[in-house]
Structures are given as C-alpha cells and as structure tokens.
Fold these 3 entries.
Entry 1:
Amino acid sequence: MLAFAMASALTREQVVAIAALANLDLDSLEIDLFTRQLGSILEYAEQVQRIDTTGVPPTASLVAHGAVDRADVLEASLDIADTLQNAPDADRTRLDGGFFKVPRVIG
Amino acid sequence: MSDVGTVRAARDAFRARAQSATELCREALARIEAVNPRLNVFNTVVADHALARAQALDAEFDRWRDAPLAGVPVALKDNICTRGIRTTASSRMLEQYVPPYDATVVSRLDSAGAIMVGKTNCDEFAMGSSNESSAFGPARNPWDLDRIPGGTSGGSAAAVAARLVPLALGSDTGGSIRQPAALCGVVGLKPTYGRVSRFGLIAHASSLDQIGPITRTVQDAAIALEVLAGIDRADATSASEPVPQFSAALTGDVRGVRIGVPRALVDQGVDPEVGRALADALDTLKARGATLVDVELPHAKYAIPAYYLVSTAEASSNLARYDGVRYGFRAKNDERRTPSHEPLRAMYTQTRARGFGPEVKRRIMLGTYVLSAGYYDAYYLKAQQVRTLILRDYEEAFQGPEAVDAIAMPTSPTPAFEIGERVADPLQMYLADVFTVSANLAGLPAVSVPCGFTAGKLPIGLQFTGRPFDEASLLRIAEAYERDTAWSNEAPTL
C-alpha cells in the first residue's frame, strides 16, 4: 500500500507535540505506532461531528445533588511519615518531618 | 477440595456455626493456592492477614454473628486502595505502592465482617477490555485458559467464576464489571453513579467510574450492594439517596414489568449464539409475565466514540499525578534515555514513559489531544453534548408515555476471545464495548447475568439497564430470570 493512501487524522509532528504536553518521552517506534493508531481512532470518533447538537448542553458530570458544602472545620489529615512512605526520594528528617525530593532544578 | 460457595451460603454457615470464619478462609486460600498459578487472577494474596482477620471474627463470634458478610472471603480489584497492602492498578507505575489509607468500600466490607483475601489482576489503570493490558500478564478465563476473562475487572470475575471467592469487587468505567462477568459466567453489577463511594478507587475517568460487586448469584449482589452503598463524606459525588434492602426486592415477581429491547442496536453485529441466548432469555421473562417492548435509543450507536473521547480526556487529567515525585515509580538517572538540561522535566517524562504500558499511554495521548486548544470543541465538547443526547434517550425510554422498567441487551457482542487476538488493533478492542458504555455515560445502574453458553462452552451474559437509583427493580428482574435458569450452578473444570 502506498504511503499517501494511508489517510490519517494525525501527523507525526502532532503526535510529538501531544507527547510533550502529556509529559511522555516516546521513542520513535511508539511515535509511529501512535500516529497510525490514534489517527484511526480519531477518524472513527469523527462520526460524532455529524450529529446536530445545536442548543444541546454538554454533560460533564452526573452528580445527583450538585456540589455539597461542609463546615470549614480543621480536620486531621495523613501525617507526614505516612505521606512520605511511598516517595521515591524524600528527606524524612528536616523541616518538621520531611519533604519530597526531586532532581536539582536550579544550576 | 470443595468449591467456595455463595456469599449467602458462607454467611449462613458462619452464623449457624456450621463453619468457622477460619475454615471458610482456609478453604478460599487453599483453592487460590491450587488454581491461581493457572489463572493469574491475583496480583497479591494476603493469607496471613486474612487468617488473622478470620480468627478475630471467630474469637468474637457474638459480635459478628449477624453482620451481613460475616466470614465471607472477598477479593478486591487491585485499583481499590487497602491500607498497608500493596495496590498496583496492575501497573509498573504502582508496583510497590502501599496505600496509607483504606478505600471507603474496604472499611464498609470490614464493618460487615468480610475477610479480604487478596487483590485481583485487572487491565492497567482499568484501561482495556480483556485484562491484557495488565503489567503482570493477563488473567485467564476459567472456562478456557487460552481466552481472556474480559476486562477490566477480569481477575475479579475469573476469581468468582473459578469458585476462589464468593464475592469480588470490581470497578466499571465503560463495562469493566459487566463485560468480564458476562465472559466468565457470573453476575456483575454496576450501581448508579454516586450509589457507592469512589473514595480510594484509583481514578480512571471520574464522571464514569463506579465500584460494584461480582458474585455467582443476583441475591449475593443484592446483599453486597446493601453493604457497599450509601453516602460518604469523603466522596462529594456520592449520593444521599436512601439505601433500600435490595435483597428484600427479590420476589421473583415480574408480572406487568415492562422490558425494553433496543432491536436496532442489538440486531447489528451480534454473534449468532449471543443473539439466540438473548432471544431465549426474553422468552423466559415473557413466560414469567413480563411485557417486552421495542425501544429506540437513537444515539446509542454514538456511545463508543463519545465514551472514548470523554473517558480518555478525564484519564489524561487523572493520570497526570503519576510523575515520580510523591509515590510510585521513578526512572533512575542512568535509565533516562536522553541527557537533558531540564533534569526535573526529564525525570517526569521518562518516569511516565517507563512506568506506563502502551494502552495507558495511548489513552493519555488521545485524551491530551482532545482537550488541547483547537480540538476541544470538535471532540471533547461535542462528545459531552452527545452524552446529553444519550442520557435523554434513556430518560425517554424510562419516563416517556411508553415507559419501561429496564432495558435488556447482550452484555458483550461476542463470547470471550483468544488472548492476543485483538491486541494489535485497539479500535477493534474498543468496539466490543458497544452495549456497556452508554450506562456509564448516562450514570445508570446495569447488571449482567449469565444467560447461557456457546456450543464451545463459553459463557454468555445478559444485561439489564435500569432507572437511576432503582437497583431494586433491576435486581428483581435479574433474579426472576435467574430462578428459571441454572446457569450459575455450572462450574468450569479446573
């Protein structure tokens, strides 16, 4: 099959740009695969655009009673040791119990 | 070795002191040990934890005697957080994650006297239709080990079908309780959105996710829902609707009940054996006094595109939290492919590249795209409008002049397919969700019950969808059907 016959809703460049937005470091094989697969999924999904939705409100959520307020009262939350228990890197000794550590940001 | 019975049987045995909680627990653990290596349905088994719990129940028999799930061994899908017990969502990203808190449903099961025996395999972050996206390999269908158990709660459905536990919890975003229940020949209930707290459920698509029970009988599902349902201040989307005694609604009486059948939807693309099983099931209900009515759900054919646009958008946002900082996997320096002058950003992108599997990445990509500037209106907003139209179709069916009490459809257009058969074509995999996703988009309760087998002895499921918060009617219809059939008594040979 000729390459130009493979109509696609997405270009490779778009896939690279989306991966950057999604914080995903894709390799070149993944970029090729997703260009093809996401292209065909989007082509299929484009059928929603044929439906007349003039004046139809969007549904974002199905919460029965809308937002519920509660009294603004201080409550116990997870303690710092529990919170840091799953951290890939943390300092558990300083600053009143510790903190998460990330790679150096500033030179 | 005896099969683990039903929820009802286990509870009654404990109550009558016919079996201790410890005996019930040992039975389940022995069967898991014997069968799980072939089925791969458990990511984690907590034998010591479960036995300690069972002994505590036995030691305080009087306190627990009347608890609704006293002595009942339970398995949880591995995307439901358990304090101190590894919860992976079947992802490398959370392979070592040990939650510091319990999901609300876990606390409720505890208070009801249940014994948690382990965490079940599922599709990674509950994304898939076959359990094949699990980072730990697919669970297998007990009826045919070369076939998928369905997804995403495949481990939970297979565990119940294989008689390892009488009750397992799943979560259902687009059919993930009902479809594996159908393909494994057990009962799977997705409650109304808001009926069961989602607190502690690892989020996939928050406006669609709902936790529910997988059991061998409808009565067991009703008993479990009585325990799981109810408002929870930790989940602002949980509903304050009163929780009736669902098991009391199971009268077997469906005289005058109106059951809608969306013929146009059902007639296209259903496996002939599934079509015949549906027709037989409808005859059975008619013979019990139900009235069958044709209903139109004109927008149901758009449910799959709408679902995959809405759910991936929500997923891309929910999964942004996995960045290697607070919990979960972090790519090490020497594993990072490209040196970068932005080490923090490189840590994020490479952690996510290595921590997530292909299906999760594909959905994050799709969701990011449909939410991005310039495409939002054409895809995401449009899908939300179509969601409204799908919701209105159901409102018309349930409230209009020709109102029905439930809508009957197959749960899955085909029986379980072979492992590996569809992995190369994600769109083909998505299309199999045609009958299940609309209940999530509309927030409606839906239940899958066994309705027969193919000639090759693969289970077929029948789905009923009902009015919001009317699980009682739904379960009554499903249980009435079950009374006339003996499908749930058949067990796979293992």
Entry 2:
Amino acid sequence: MRVYEIMFIVNPNAPEDEIDKINSQTENVVTAGGGKIQKIEKLGRRKLAYPVKKFSEGFYVLFRVDANGDIVREVERRLRVMDPVIKYITVKMDDEIRRIEKARKHRQKRASRIGARQAARAEQAAGQATEATT
Amino acid sequence: MRESRDASKEKRGGAARQYFRRRKVCKFCVEKIDSIDYKDAKMLAQFVPERAKVAPRRISGVCAPHQRRLVEAIEKARNIALLPFTAD
C-alpha cells in the first residue's frame, strides 16, 4: 500500500450534487479495492492556468488515499470515462512523506543536541561561580 | 560553514565590485519548508516569472537540492493546470 493523491478537475458548470456523486463513486472504487480514504477535499472553483477542453475554469477535488496500483488504475480509468471530469492527476506521496519525516527528525535531534550543550555550559558556568565564591 | 566560505569569497572580490549586492538565500532553507507542495500554486508562482519558465537558481537563489524539488513540484502543478506551460 502506498499513499497517493488523486486530484481532478470537474466541469465548472456541473451542479454540486454531480460532484458529490463523482466523489462517492470514486470513494467506493477505492474502498472496494481494499484501499482507505485519508481525506476528500473540495478545493473549489479555480481559474485554470491554461484552457482544458475549452474550459477556462474548473472545480478542483483532491483525494488522499492509501491504495495500490490496481486501485489507482481503476480510479483513473473511471475518471477518464466520466464526462464532467476534464483532467486528473495522481501523485505518489510516499517519498515526500518520508522526506518530511526525515527532516523533522533531523531538526529534533539537532535541537536536543543544542539544548544539551547549552545545559552543560550553564552547569559549567554555575560550577565556576561557586568555585569563585569559596 | 558554507556561509563563512561565501563571505571570504565576497571579501576578495569586494574591491572590484562597486555596489553592494545582497546575498541571496534559499527561501526553502530559510523558512524551513520541508516539502515543496505541488498544490501550493501561489508559492510556486514566485518561481515562474511572466514567461512561465522556471527561474534559474542564479536569479532565485534557491539551493540545488531545493531547486530539484521545486522543479518537480512545478511540473506536477503544470500537469493539473495550476501553473501555465507557456505564457500566452
């Protein structure tokens, strides 16, 4: 299982319930194949950076799912045949997640190291201070 | 470490250079952004000037590892019409 983000653009003239229908259909495909939905996000209407199928606007929807290749293939096939969907993209997120995790760990380690060093220095300073008074 | 080396280099060339140029720093390093998200079109747009080409590192000051990530993100964003391929 991998983490994927599936983003697609729906015809901006499609009614809201049609978008919901597409979403629930896609959700069913994922869960039926043994995948898990992490989140579904309607990003809303946006201007497209370039015309797609003569549309200059589109309704963006983002899925974040735990899935495998078979599920992704099926979802993409369905999106392709759905008329209101004008464009879609699937992005594998595993590497990105791993990278974020690594960076966070690295930063934490560094922070604790610096913290330890400062504590040691403070202790030393305190020790010298007491020495001076005696 | 890297900063001190750069500083010494600047000092050497300092006599010839007449005006002060602010040293460019990588936005992603400075702001500690771990992941460059392809969905964040507004942020990516900073690195694609009018001609819709990716700004070179010498202009934007982005470090090499981050530039690689940045280009990946921009290409994904282009694929889903968040960013243009060409200026029209």
Entry 3:
Amino acid sequence: MASVTYEHVKKSYGDVHVIKDLNFHVSDKEFLVLVGPSGCGKSTALRMLAGLEDITSGQIKIGDRVVNDVPPKDRDIAMVFQSYALYPHMSVYENMAFGLKLRKMSKTEIDQRVQKAAGLLGIGHLLDRKPKQLSGGQRQRVAVGRAIVRNPSVFLFDEPLSNLDAKLRVETRANITRLHQDLGTTFIYVTHDQVEAMTMATRIAVLKDGYLQQIDTPQTLYDHPANVFVAGFIGSPSMNFFEGKLVNKDGKLMVDLGVFQLEVPAGKKDMYGKHVGKDVVCGIRPEDINDPLYLPPAVADSRVQGKIEVTELMGNEIFLYLNSGGKQYVARVDPRTKAAVGMDKELSFNVDNMHLFDKVTEKRLE
Amino acid sequence: MNTTQDNSQAGLSFFETAPGKLLVSLGGLIATIVFLVWGFGFLRAAEVPLYVMTPFAILWGVGGIAMLYTFGNMFIEQMPQVITARVQPYLFVGPAVLILFWYLAFPTIRTLWISAFSNAGGPPAAVWASPAEGGGWDNFSKEFSENFVGLDNYAQIFSGENNNMRIAFRNNLYWILFGASSSVIMGLLIAVLADRSKFENVAKAIVFLPMAISFVGAGVIWNFIYEYRPSGESQIGLANAILTLFGAEPTTFAQNVGLPWGLNNIFLIIIVIWLQTGYAMVLFSSAIKGIPSELLEAARVDGANEVQIFFRIMIPVIWGTIITVTTTVVIFTLKVFDVVWVMTGGQFDTQVIGTQFYRESFTSGNSGTGSALAIILLLAVVPVMIYNLRDFSKRRTF
C-alpha cells in the first residue's frame, strides 16, 4: 500500500520534451486516471513510474522512497499492458506464476495465490491454456491476474481496455472498479478515453502537451474545468464554445456572442463583474441547451433561436446539431421534442451552468 | 437477329456445350503431349544452329507447359464440381512434382543402386551385345560394374578397417559439434548484443560480410592467413605473424597432424564459423526484433533480470527460428566439402564424408563406395530435415 508522488518530473528525448514539469500526488488506495489526447505524455508518465523509462529530471516517489534509480522489479508495482504482453510460450497458470517464481516463492504459496486470483477473475477453467487459445477479454483478465498475484503496492494500467470491443469494454470497466474496491490498493490508470476516466477514477489528471492541466475528482472536473482544453476534453458530446465579450448593457451583465447574448445569472454577477470588457470564451454543455417545452426543473432560462441541421436519436435523448447565424453547436434534448431537420427553433440555454474562460489564457474566469 | 449471324453462332455453339468443350480439351491434351514428346526428341537429335534451337526450346518448354495447364484445366472443369475441386490442385503442382522427381528422386534411387556394386570385374557388356560377348537384358540394371555386392560397400565403410573413413566420420562429428553449435551460439549472442548497441548496423554488417564470400573464396583467403614459413623466415601469414610476434613457434595450423585428436580440423571449422555466423545472426536478429517490446517490459516489471529475460522469454519465443537456423547450419556442415577441399584437399586427417565421396567416386574410380557415402550423407541429413519441416508446420498453426 503506498502513495505516489511526482515532483518536477521532466522527460525529454534529445530536443523533444515529452513531459515538462509534472507535479502531483496520489494518495494510498486512490484510483487515479491519467487522461489526455495521444502524445500528451500520459503513457510516458506511467512508464517512468514503472521504471521502463528514465526520468530526465525531477523525482518520482513510491511511498517515501525515491525510485528514480530503482529497477522495475524492486519497485513493488505490477503493470497491465495495452497488448496484455502475455508470454506466448507459457500457459495461463505459468504466466501468472512467472513473477512469483522469480521471487523464489514456494510452490504451495504460488499455487494458492494463482488459484485465488483466477477465482476472483473467473479464469479458473483457463489455467492450462496458452494465450493464443484465449479470446481478447480472457487475455485481458489473465493480464490483470498476472498483476494481482504479485500483490503489489501500486497497480499500473496502460490503456488495458483499448483492444476490447465496446460491450466488453463496458463490462470490464466495472470489473476493474470492483477490483479496486476489493483490493484496496493504489491504481494508476492511463487512457485516452474520457468515459473510462469519468467512470472509474476517484481522481482524474488531465494531461496535454506534457503539462498537467487539472487534477481533481471527476465531478469537479466536469463542473469546474480549469481551462478550455479540460472543458472540451471531458464530456461527450463535447462542450460548445462561443467567442464573445463580457459587457454591461442596461445595468445587466451580458456575454455578447455576436449572434446572440446571454445574461449572466444574478448569482455569478459578482464573480464575473470584475472582468467586464474582457474577450471571453463561453462554454455551454450540450445538456444545458434544452427544448423550452421540456425544461428540467430550476434552470436559468435564456432563449436563443437556432436552425436544426442534423438530429441524432439516441433513444433516451436526441442530439440536435444547430446553427445560429453561422455558429454551429450541439444540444442534447428530451426525446419527446418535436424538433425536426430544417426547423427554426427556440432553445433554452441554462446560463447557470455557463462556463467562462479568458480568451487569451484560456483559463477559467473566477 | 439475322440469319447469317445465327449460322455462325450455330457453328461456334457446339464448342460451348459441355461435350464440345470436353472434346476440345481432350484433343488439346493429346496434342500437347504429342508436341512435348516430339519436341523433346527433336531437341535431343536436332543438329540445327543454336539460334534456332534456343527459341524453339523456349517455345517448347514454356508453350508446352502453358498448353498443358490450359487444356488440362479445361478438361478438369468439365468434370462434376466435386472432382474438379479435388483434382485441380494436383494438375497445377503435378508437372513441378514430376520434374522434381526426375531431378531429385530418380538420381537418388540411381545412386542407391550404384552403391550396391563394387568396381571389380570391369564394366558390363552392352545390353544389345551378343550373348557370347556377355550381352543381354541382365545387364540393363548393371550401371557400371559387373559385380553386384549388395551392402558390402556399406559394411566396408563401417567396418573400422578403413581408417580413412573412421577419421572422416569423426571429423564430420567435429564439424557438427564445434562448427554448427558455434555458428548458432555466436550468431545468437551477436544478434542479442547488437540489438542493444548503438553500432548495431555496423557490427551486423561486419559479421554478415563473409556471407558474401564463396566457400572456395574463403578457403583461398584463409590459406593466406594460415600460410606457414619455417621458423626464422619472415611470416607472411597473419596467424603465424601474430604467433611469432609473441615469441611462439610458427605452426602449420590445418596441416598440423601433430595435434592430438585431429584438432587441426578446428582451424578449418573456424573458417566456416566465420562464414556462417552472419547467416545465423541475421535470422536471429530479425526474430528478436519481432518480439514485442511490451513482452520484455512485462517480464522486467514481473521481476526478471536481463539474463532471465534472455533465457526464459526471448529464447522460448524465438525457439522456432533457433530450430530452423540450427538444422540448416547442421545440414550445411554435414555436407561440407569446398573449404576442406581447397585448404587441405582432405589430407592431413581432415577428410570429411563429402571429400571422401569425391575421392572415391572421381579419383579412385570407386563409384560404388562413393555412392554409398552419398547415401549415408543423405540418411544423416534426412532426420534433421524432417525435424526442421515438422517444426515449420507446427509454427504455421501458431
């Protein structure tokens, strides 16, 4: 059981700086998900923790121990790889027992641990098979099994679900969450999929271009994204962004977006009042744009006229692809709506949940 | 539709019906076979200039086979579907298999037959000679000698009376033990080490370079390296130059029969190791590069050190390649001939089965013994070959 700390960690390959000053702390028993677009350095960050990449500068600590120069085998970690990396010449049992044999554990102890892990993962009947005889989902579970028999203090996952089909991915997601609850160990999990991050993590670290953008609980990340990137990255469909200006008009604080204006709700007037005159980026999530006929309770209603270009029925909701004066955006509305393609429709923007960012720094206005 | 067109179509349409096609294909097949047989006879007997002969040979060979395939295929396609599917593959591999049989299996059988005769008694009379002269169909099966001895040639080879043979077998064993294993082990080591080196390409190029040299060329090069001048004279051979530099006496290396257990053979084996290591290395290198890096990283995280990774992950994963390379190198070394022949001519107790075969067959006029040796060599190679092929097909299903 251990915490993990990154202190001013940098990684460069020659002139290419993959990770530029990474700082964060993962508490014991936390499930931290590192998420970001490809090339953001999230896998590198994980591989440095595993000891598979050198650390250019800075420190990584597991517990209180600086592990910069500790070889992988002595870091008390286990890792699940994207390709699962099962040893093709060994049976499932041998795959799981390999790390224990190397540690010169007794045969009975090895057997106990393998059987226990296999039972936990429901792969008891596969122990004699070779990896090539297994399905993708089974291989994935063996890879997890190989990690848990070692009983490490930190589990590392490098995109372990990206080779599974959509249905299996959802199932496995829940299984890994359950595993985290059962084992009570620190999990660090890398993915590019924000849905995985949102559903599994106790905290999410969003990375971009080698910098940490924000690290917080999924809910905080969703409700209070620190900058435009995080706001756009978390949530599906993505948040709509409009460029505009904060203005005072007839005593009201308005966000002037050119084609339409949104009034800042009374509760946020004080906060945004000091930014009057600033160029801003205004973010509205698709679910905060509604059909006025089917408004959820207690929304700060602000009406906008938009033309419907495309509709996507999801069953429990409909995505409307809208256009107001050349500006395109997406709304996620109640499926009972009468909206149809080509229609000019009045929409309700819930300005309570409007996010404002500085246009220059792209940081959240507060 | 006008009537003239109908007429011409009626004429054609018979050949588009099933029996019509069958007839055409059968006729075509017969014509093809006649053409092939006639062409063979023509080519063998004809005394026409080369510039006539060559185009005709090409036309005969390529055209004849094309005709065979076309008409054969046409014929088979007229059969019921089930038969077509069954027979069609054999039609296409058939000619190749027949030619292979002619070039490989037939000479093998003939060699086996020859190995059952001794050279005593002189050549048999012609089949067509008069009975008084010893002619007759009995002689048909006697390839070159009157004297059928059964397995005597083999018995004689293995009897142990024949010291030459005993030494040849021992040397061949040395070749496999030291030559093949060193090539494989060094090739593997170089491949693994080069894989982690900054100078990988340079190192591999240097090791691979000798592969481009023929065995005979290598023999000539190493003849210079092993060149011997009596003590006191200036040594022009690299090996002896180095030896004398450190104050040692110059030696004759491969020709030094004074060494115990025929260890002078080692100096010949070194040449082939130098030639073959590159071959092994290249195959191992590509196999090692084929191991996913995540596999090695998983082992590293699991707690394996680099030596354990090498023996417990890399070796098992590339085992198929190791088998293929080893068997190929073993077959090479079993058949070794050129290097020995160029360096020592098989003297100084360096003879191997290959050189003994040559000496018996072509120098001593002892075709029976020579053929017997060729058969023994074949029998020695076959199990290695089978193992290689079996492993190959196993890996296919991987």
